Amino acid sequence: MSTDTPQSGTNADTDADTDDDAAVERRSHEPLVRVRNLQKYFWENDSLLDRLLGNDRVAVRAVDGVSFDIYEGETLGLVGESGCGKSTTGETLLRLQEPTDGRVEFEGQNVYDLAGEALTEFRTDAQVVFQDPFSSLDPRMTIGDIVQQPLDIHDVGTEDERRERVRDLLERVGLSVDQLDRYPHEFSGGQRQRIGIARALALEPDFLVLDEPTSALDVSVQAQVLNLLDDLQDEFDLTYLLISHDLSVIRHVCDRVAVMYLGEIVEIGPVADLFEVPKHPYTKALLESVPRASTDERERDRETLTGDVPSPRDPPSGCRFRTRCPAVIPPEDLEIEQETYRELMDLRQRIEGEDISLESVGEDGQFALEDGPVPEADVPAFVAALKERLLDRDLPSPHDEIVEEALAELATSDWDAAAERLRAEYESVCERAHPDLRTDEQSAPEQHRPVACHLYGESPPNAVDPSSWRE
Ligand SMILES: Nc1ncnc2c1ncn2[C@@H]1O[C@H](COP(=O)(O)OP(=O)(O)OP(=O)(O)O)[C@@H](O)[C@H]1O
């Protein structure tokens, strides 16, 4: 962890260099945690009743084949929008959830094979701090009992020794022993998170998953809690997986960061390098969407990361980010501007998802498909009305004609023919092939890092130069 929040000292450059050296040194050792192809699916429509009714069960692919290492003493960040699978990754890795597939090694042992004493040892060594300290603390217990509970469960020492340890822990996290007999509701948010941290440290763990540990706190309190976590990491040789959707927290606190999108890791590397030269279009878009101070930059932010994360029940084929990507790759032989291509891809998505209302097309609902197909003579007017509604810009030739042909198929509600017409012209490698995480060897050596994007490695002809669209 390398907090460089304003509170953490004056020699920021020297501190950063020392932190970088220390991070490199740590990575030369074996990882403490090794995650390989971890998968966690939740199943819907999976009850006995569903089976009797013949409902197909549906997989929610929360985590879909992630691999990464966490080295002793480092802080690895896991960042991504809400719903990308960060918490599920953290919980499955700690075996608070059973995986669907894959493997997690902790100190060389597969945690999903552990049983008996070995499992108890793992549960001692690996702990979690949750986002919302209030809901994770039992309101009927005093904070002394809350912090002591893990010691009681694991039968550590005598009652006196446990009480003594609780006092030490409370002091260590900045609380007073006078507060031992108080209840969680008597504390502020920041203090409650300190209690959660004290409890997580009770069994002297080596590894903590910090799941949005400061998201529920005021900004001023966030920095204090992050600094506390930084101090504790040094003092107790802790290794952290820090889950956060907040890039500024990640930037200030982590040594390396893994960027997650819709159940997958799309880029992973040292924080400073990744923030300096983000490679995956999703990483770039995330960085671009951080609120900026200047008006110019705020204007630009609106261009990025529009729409929601698609459902993990039916993720897009190929690259999962392609439905929102501002650098999606057109077919090799197609001369087309990226903005036009993006608009055509959005239109295709809507047609493929039958996500266009044909109930009332044109002025005053001139065409209503529920009354039957549009008469042939009216098709041009029907197409013009749809174009007006669906497209933000005039398309250059020949795209205008191709779109008109596709929309004309909707005059007979033939969604498949409309989709096929556009697919035949515009299908992208991004939808055909899944990009694996692979190191981008063509970049400068210090920027070698795994990225899952067809723009890297053997670049397909016609690909947008990834450095161009950020300007
Ligand atoms: N028990 C569950 N049953 C079904 N779906 C679930 C379950 N838990 C999580 N999910 C789904 O899995 C996906 C990933 O959720 P997860 O909480 O891991 O994401 P996240 O990136 O941590 O987001 P957030 O920051 O909002 O918690 C989401 O679509 C979520 O709705």
From TrEMBL:
Annotated GO biological process: peptide transport; transmembrane transport
What residue intervals traverse the membrane? none
What EC designation does it have? Answer: 3.6.3.24
Q: Which domain of life is it from?
A: Archaea
Which NCBIfam families does this one have?
Answer: oligo_HPY
Q: What is this protein called?
A: Oligopeptide/dipeptide ABC transporter, ATPase subunit
Listed SUPFAM superfamilies: P-loop containing nucleoside triphosphate hydrolases (SSF52540)
Group of enzyme by EC: hydrolase
Which residue ranges have biased composition labelled Polar residues? Answer: 1-11
Keyword Hydrolase applies: yes
Q: What does the organism's lineage look like at the top?
A: Archaea, Methanobacteriati, Methanobacteriota, Stenosarchaea group, Halobacteria
Species: Halopiger xanaduensis (strain DSM 18323 / JCM 14033 / SH-6)
Read off the InterPro entries from this record: AAA+_ATPase, ABC_transp_ATP-bind, ABC_transporter-like_ATP-bd, ABC_transporter-like_CS, Oligopep_ABC_C, P-loop_NTPase
Basic and acidic residues: which segments have biased composition? 294-305, 436-449
Q: Which CDD domains match?
A: ABC_NikE_OppD_transporters (cd03257)
Residues in ABC transporter domain copies: 33-287
Task: Please list the GO terms describing molecular function.
Answer: ATP binding; ATP hydrolysis activity
Family of the protein in this entry: Belongs to the ABC transporter superfamily.
- Give the residue ranges for region: Disordered: 1-28, 289-321, 436-471
Keyword terms? ATP-binding, Hydrolase, Nucleotide-binding, Transport
